[in-house]
Design goal:
By secondary structure, the chain is of the alpha/beta class. 40% of the residues lie in helices and 17% in strands. It has a single domain, classed as Metal-dependent hydrolases (TIM Barrel). It has an eight-stranded parallel β-sheet with strand order 1-2-3-4-5-6-7-8.
């Protein structure tokens, strides 16, 4: 079973080309990747990148820190991109109160627009939430979240994990779950139902232990899965198969080994 990186920024790495990252990932056994857009330009590039490599898919949207750019014209471009077969998700969108690049009002308006788009196009919604969990979950409930939701780089506590699980929202863990000071995050990961668990790198950011200090890339996602297997007390191979099945289900991808028919 291949490893899965449900959230990476292949076009953001300053040290490795996309081809080099994909090659490293495949050598490490990573068979499925979703490369993420954060604005109009990077979303367009994500689609182009996904088109070039088998096993790479795209997510398009406007990051909450760039929400001031989510004009009607830009959102129209994002909507058109969702029609491309490489696009499996809308995002990353959400709320970020850690940084003040945009106001909460700007973020909420862009967030609602992405929610509507994902629901209308039957796409997965990929959420970025940082220090805004109550508002983020309240808004998702109020705006009628689409059927498939991924909490990217999950950073909530046990109560947040349980609330997400009640809705059937997937929780994706990145390299920070391996950090020595992340005991609370590992405690939250331990209560996530295995059918809602995902892995990611958020590369080139959040490089997992023991490679902290280096740029991240999808080849490091096995370290995330190894940590999750420990906290969930599950055999690694078993959890690997579960996470791959979860990723294919949440992004509406064919099951492993499935043969497309005309």
């Amino acid at each position: 079973m291949p490893y899965v990186d449900t959230h990476c920024h292949l076009d953001h790495h300053e040290g490795l080309s996309v081809s080099e990252q994909v090659e490293r990932a495949r050598t490490a056994g990573v068979g499925l990747m979703v490369t993420i857009g954060t604005d109009m330009a990077s979303s367009t590039q994500a689609v182009s990148t996904a088109r070039r490599f088998e096993g790479v898919h795209a997510c398009v949207g406007i990051h909450p820190n760039d929400a001031m750019e989510a004009s009607d014209r830009v959102l129209e471009v994002i909507a058109r991109l969702t029609e491309e077969p490489e696009v499996v998700a809308v995002g990353e969108t959400g709320l970020d109160y850690y940084r003040d690049h945009t106001t909460p009002g700007q973020q909420a308006a862009a967030f609602r627009a992405h929610i509507d788009l994902a629901r209308e196009r039957d796409k997965t919604l990929v959420i970025h939430c940082r220090e805004a969990w109550d508002d983020c979950l309240d808004l998702l409930e109020d705006a009628r979240a689409p059927e498939r939701v991924v909490m990217h780089c999950f950073s909530g506590d046990v109560d947040v994990a349980k609330r997400c699980a009640e809705h059937g929202w997937y929780m994706s863990f990145a390299g920070n779950v391996t950090f020595k000071n992340a005991a609370d995050l590992r405690e939250a990961a331990a209560v996530v139902p295995d059918e809602l668990l995902l892995t990611e790198t958020d590369s080139p950011f959040l490089t997992p232990h023991p490679h902290r200090g280096k740029p991240n890339d999808p080849s490091y996602v096995p370290y995330v899965l190894e940590t999750l297997a420990e906290v969930q007390q599950r055999p690694l191979a078993e959890l690997e198969a579960t996470v791959e099945a979860n990723a294919r289900r949440v992004f509406a991808l064919p099951a492993a080994g499935a043969v497309a028919t005309a």
